[in-house]
Each structure stands twice: as structure tokens, then as C-alpha cells.
Write a structure and sequence with these properties.
Layout (H helix, E strand, L loop, with lengths): L5 E4 L2 E7 L7 E4 L2 E6 L8 E7 L3 E9 L8 H8 L30 E5 L2 E17 L5 E12 L3 H8 L8 E4 L6 H9 L5 H8 L12 E4 L4
Antiparallel strand pairs: 1-2, 1-7, 3-6, 4-5, 6-9, 7-8, 8-9, 10-11
Helix pairs in contact: 3-4
Amino acid sequence: MLVKAFLTRKDNPLLVVPCLFNPAEFTVEKSNQFAEVNIPGLSSPIYQFVRGNARSVTLELFFDTYEEKIDVRIFTDRITGWDAGSMFSGLPNAAKGLMDIDSDLHAPPICLFVWGTFIFQCIIERVSKNFTMFLPEGIPARATLNVTLKEYREVDVQVKELDLHSADLTKSWVVKQGDNLWSIAAKEYGDPAQWRLIADANRIDNPRLLEPGRELVIPVKE
């Protein structure tokens, strides 16, 4: 069975925005920032590390509802927010697009892009939409979205990783309705991609199927 890629909110993994068609490819980019330090008498500058830049993922998503004769924006607006703009600003958060401002956060939500074992915690930085087919009444029925996702990592997680001598004790987690391994890993490690640590420690084959009430061992992250 073909696994479908999807986007979801980190704080509400039950709110799934599926891709109608899996992307043909995606690109992951990572860079570091260095400052040039000019030393008199040297033929070239030396470089001093300033900071790392967040990883970014770029991909193209294709949506087609022409055969169903329905508005393709039913699907695309769940990512980009509603094209009608401020008319829908009073919508409850559950009905807003992933790029819309959350009423409680006063910012768009932190998201997860999940495709098989690739899990990327991110903000949706930029999306461009191109509508290429329309129903007779002018309703768009085919669209391509060029999406840029920027990695999001909590400050306390990054600081903790810098302290190589900090203690990290094994903990336990009681599964609640709607829990999955990547959301638990995001909360415990600050990185949803670390779900395999929990899966291996608890001998779990399917990260989506967790029985409520089960107690999981949260192992030490080396």
C-alpha cells in the first residue's frame, strides 16, 4: 500500500492535511554562517563560525479534482489558508489553514511534514499556488503548490544539546487517545524524527498504532 505524505500540526496530530499525490521529489538544504576575519599580513581571511542555519525542505505538491468536479481549493486552502482572506478570520483554529494565524498562539502553528520514516518539524515559510485547470463555471480544479518548509527547533532543546555533560534520565509515557510516536518524540526530544528510539525500546512496528493506556519507555537519547 502506497504511504501518503501529509502535513499536520505538532500540537494537534489528529488534524491531518493529506497530499492527494505524493511529491515526485523533495530537496533538503542545510547551511552554516561564517564571518570573514581579516588578519594583516595573511594572503586570505580566516573564517569564524557564527551560527548554523535551519534546514529547509522544498517540494512541489500536485492537486487534481477535475474528475470529481469539485473546487480544488477545498484541499489547497487547508495548507495556505483561505483565499477569501479576512472574511474567514473568525473561523475556529481547527478550520483554518496551516499558514493562518492561530488565535491562541498569535502566529501560524508549528507543523510536521510526514512521509514514511521522514518526519520534519517545521514552519511553512512560503507557498506559491498555480491553478492550471478550471470547471466550466470558472472554479479551479487543478493546482500545483511550490512549498518551502523551514525547520523549527525549540531553544531549550538546542541549549541542552550544547551541554554534552547534562544528565538525561529514562522516563515513561502513558499513551493517550490520538498519540503517535513522532508527536511523543517531538515533546520528549524536541525532534519528531527520533521516534525510532522509542519504537525500538518498546518493540513497536507501526508508529501510528498505539493502544491508549499503554506505558512506554522513553529511552535516554545518547
